[in-house]
Amino acid sequence: MATSVMTHDSAGDPMSLGARIWSWITTTDHKRIGILYGVTAFVFFLVGGLEALLIRLQLASSGNTVVSAEAYNELFTMHGTTMVFMAVMPLSAAFFNFVVPLQIGARDVAFPRLNAFSYWVFLLGGLFMNASFVFGAAPNAGWFGYANLTSTQYSPGMNIDFWVLGLQILGVASIAAGVNFIVTIVNMRAPGMRIMRMPVFTWMTLVTQFIVVTAFPVITVALVFLMFDRTFGTTFYSVAAGGDVLLWQHLFWLFGHPEVYILILPAMGIISEVIPTFSRKPLFGYAIVVYSGLLIGILGWGVWAHHMFSVGLGPVADSVFSATTMMIAIPTGVKIFNWIATMWGGRIRFTTPMLFAIGFIAMFIIGGLSGVMHSSPPADLQQTDTYFVVAHFHYVLFGGAMLGIFAGIYYWWPKVTGRMLSEPIGKLHFWLTIIGANLTFFPMHFIGLLGMPRRIYTYDAALGLDTMNMVATVGAFVTGVGALVFVFNVLWSRRRGTPVEHNPWGAATLEWAIPSPPPVYNFSVIPEVRSRLPLWAQSGMSEVPATPPEPVHVPDGSYWPLVASLGIVIAATGAILKSVPVVVGGGVVLVLALYFWAFEPFEV
Amino acid sequence: MSAVAHHTSTGLDNRKLAMWTFIGSECLLFGTLISTYLVYQGQSLSGPMPGEILDIPLTSISTFVLLMSSLAMVLALAAVTRADRLWSRVWIFATAALGLVFLGFQAYEFTHFVHEGLTIKTSLFGSTFFVLTGTHGAHVAVGVLLLLTLLVRSFQGKLGPDKAMVVEITGLYWHFVDVVWIVIFTVVYLLS
Questions:
Q1: Does residue A56 belong to any structural domain of this protein?
Q2: By Cβ atoms counted within 10 A, which residue in A247, A289, A294, A346 is the most buried?
């Protein structure tokens, strides 16, 4: 049923608590789904961070016994899996959801119920994977799950079953969201929002979603093979039957390397919004930044075997992948120069989002340099499986992706909530994070080059690495305190944050043309865009009146997306329990929910 | 519904663009399955081998059946577009029925192979063959379900020309699944 909303959707509606919870469960509003994504993913981020702290406690000194070797395997596996699939990806999704429709001048995404479905599948998939801890069977073969560590012979327990099924569930959420956002960005732009007028964040979202819809089918097939090997006795990764364990590595990294860009491109998009805003200058070389992002997305498909130099692919393959890996550093470097050139001569304001964005650039340069070092196979053979690699990818994923995400949180927080986060507390958060991260990850370069292997639960005092490991552990806890400071900032802002108008930062893009928080219908009138920087240009866009001149249609909620995702998780639970009736039951719930979904009256 | 909701930047219907994107994603799914089949070709340590067991004449018939179902799908869309109730039902039914016949051939083939001693566990050929063709068969089954849903909607009088887009999108999926089969037939059967 259609409802028409004329007035501002205020939080002070006289709704009962139950009705309010129900309205969140059935919501199809991209802004609310974005908030759900953000809160859920941040909780998973804290869980993954806790796992990291336990790892660092264990490694604080040689011969430590904080956790057992078995528990350590579970911790580093779940730390990696959680951070990649349940923290960084969905934190980016929170921004896709909240920001992209606003940046292109749309009322919602193309398929609001599919969007809700993506969120519920992500939530339930994440809970499913973490439920493994309750059964004492958390995944323990690394986030990369190399065959044949994952075979029933070497992993007879439920650990790997949770991992295989959990990742497949999360993949469904990602592909559904990928299709949804590609259609949204290609098809739902406001008049005049030409493709080369789109904000860089929207552009990077588009590139990311293209990678998602192409890379996730590959990992899905690899996981199906593994599931069939474990459940039905197929021979995909069975050496005894003539199979090749490297098939898994190729399929995993064919997905896994594009996945790296799925993690980093959204953060690059975020800081491409933040840096121009706080330099009071348009982004230097907009088109080049966009094309570089596209090129990274394409080249990202041709570098996967640099994760496999040590398996002996031969000199030709090694040389080709070494060359492509060095090549991908070019568009990445181009972007870095563009951000620096944007700041050059600008009137820079060192606000918290700007500090995080600058932190991103600095950390990403360090991580990028060690990345180029890995691209040389002889050097990589020395570095692979050591803490040098751990140092590298934490500089790009924590120093890069996470700092970018924090820049985005501080930047769009006033748009989402209508209140500022505290700047002083934010700056404390920034300094704790950047100091903590460098204390943790910089010594790992040396720890690694001096020979400490990854994924081993302890080390010998004779290695002489106790001091540097202790420094890394102290740094991890400093970062952890930073995260707590951020949580405090959030709570502080809920009550005391300064209320804001439309555009507290004086930014240029469309989302800042409407109130904070935006009304449920986003734009009272869909604006006509006449500039790439509509709020900075003279008459860059048509007027958006304070109240809609005519009633705006807002779709009702739906609970079928939640029921459908429950069906998927019921089926997965049945697969864990090896119970065919439960699997079939879950399938029936899914199919019925999809039919009710398809035929319920729902107007976009 | 406001006019704005119908307007799209490209002029393409959102649902149609979504189906094209999904088909692009599916290309990678089948691409991975077919690549794995090719990588493992000739690597099986025990028989039956593809050359001994694959029945090209029989599968040519089922391939022809699936191709004809695509023709029926085209005719179904034409009939729905011109509001021809009778023939839209006939052709939608024909498409679904031909799809079911194809699935029947596949069920026969699978059972026959199991009797000949080729199961999903037997060898690399068995694993890659059954998972590849089985995934395709599952896609055909989903397509049949979609077509039967359209048929029911038609009998409910809810499949007029205004719903031609839904039929067209179902057709896109159906033709894609058909094209994938041509590739699988060529790679697995003709080049064995």
A1: yes
A2: A289
